[in-house]
Amino acid sequence: MDRGPIRKIIHVDMDAFFASVEQRDDPRLRGRPVAVGQAAARGVVAAASYEARTFGVKSALTSVTAMRRCPDLVFVPPRFDVYRSVSQQIHAIFAEFTDLIQPLSLDEAYLDVTANRRGLPTAWLTAKAIRARILEETGLTASAGISYNKFLAKLASDHRKPNGQFAVTPDMGEAWVETLSVSRFHGVGPVTAAKMERLGITTGAHLRSKSIDFLTEHFGSSAGWYHAIARGEDDRPVNPNRVRKSSGSETTFDRDLTDPKEIEAGVLRMADDVWTWCQRRHTFGRTVTVKVKFQDFRQITRSRSLPGAVDTLTLLRSASLALVRSIYPVEKGIRLVGVTVSNFLAGNPEPSQLPLPASQPGPGGSAEL
């Protein structure tokens, strides 16, 4: 990892972060299968401990299914304020080793340690030092992937979990990628992985064998990315100034709703959550999106972009209500609603001159199924 100008990238990923914090803070939970979330009939697992994962319990699983798979599962309500506080501790440790930190979430980040601020002989030893500092400071374990680019570092961090690390060196990168399932690749989601499988592409080796013309024909603008990662190539820098593009909040109801008053009450709660984030950071956007998931799991969104910033709670509430009202009458029960603000404006944005009256439905945006 030390030859010439080759970059040294570390991807640090906390181990079962939310659940591990709960087990750390409550000794009674240690060694037990734990799910962070609500045990309600309509609840969803936000995170699962490794003990729970052995039963097939994982994030985004419904609580009912999780309890069916693991009858001894212990549910604990999420404490996001605590998770954010611990995350700040972890990122302060990262800053001891490099200024080039690109957070991906509360529990993972890319670090470029090419400059070697601490004077450690290798990136491998740097990753070990970071993980040791995290354990010392927080009592939590982390896993790390070390490589010469972000794509490989992220893949590597999952290779020795939990509480381990793995390095992909320049002389092994291409061959290592060929052995992996494409379903593990960043940027290849379940739908794309299924499409690739139909085309006979299940491994990195299969993907590498396909020409750029073939990939373009079947995957359009993503062809270049797939062509590159099949060869272990990724030129993206670690970007400490990555701009957040949206802020959203969503909730799953305890039962399917058809009453407009109940649906709108949920939308307003989500709008209030989003407004709290926007106001705290003095960050305002001009696009409001409402997400609706029906009882059959069909999902649609409605969006509207205003001429200026959505810079008051009243305006955000009005826009959100108008958008959800555009789907009425509701033919099927609604199980989830969400509100997102995006298209953030830089500097001191001008307020919108076209507030949406809450008493009238908006025009509705494009629907995404």
Automatic annotation (TrEMBL):
Which amino acids does the record list as binding Mg(2+)? D13, D107
Q: Which PROSITE patterns match?
A: UMUC
InterPro entries cross-referenced by the UniProt entry: DNA/RNA_pol_sf (IPR043502), DNA_pol_Y-fam_lit_finger_sf (IPR036775), DNA_pol_Y-fam_little_finger (IPR017961), DNA_polymerase-Y (IPR050116), DNApol_IV (IPR022880), Rev_trsase/Diguanyl_cyclase (IPR043128), UmuC (IPR001126)
Details of cofactor binding: Binds 2 magnesium ions per subunit.
**Record keywords, A-Z:** Cytoplasm, DNA damage, DNA repair, DNA replication, DNA-binding, DNA-directed DNA polymerase, Magnesium, Metal-binding, Mutator protein, Nucleotidyltransferase, Transferase
Tell me its EC number(s), please: 2.7.7.7
Organism in which the protein naturally occurs: Sphingomonas insulae
Write down what this protein is called. DNA polymerase IV
- Entry's family note: Belongs to the DNA polymerase type-Y family.
* Gene3D superfamilies named among the record's database cross-references: 3.30.70.270, 3.40.1170.60, 5' to 3' exonuclease, C-terminal subdomain, DNA polymerase, Y-family, little finger domain
| Residue numbers marked as site, Substrate discrimination | F18
The cofactor required is: Mg(2+)
User: Per the annotation, which location comes first and is thus the protein's main one?
Assistant: cytoplasm
How does the record describe its quaternary structure? Monomer.
Q: Where is this region: Disordered?
A: 350-369
Task: Provide the function of this protein.
Answer: Poorly processive, error-prone DNA polymerase involved in untargeted mutagenesis. Copies undamaged DNA at stalled replication forks, which arise in vivo from mismatched or misaligned primer ends. These misaligned primers can be extended by PolIV. Exhibits no 3'-5' exonuclease (proofreading) activity. May be involved in translesional synthesis, in conjunction with the beta clamp from PolIII.
Per UniProt, subcellular location reads as: Cytoplasm
Please report the stretch or stretches of sequence annotated as the UmuC domain.
9-189
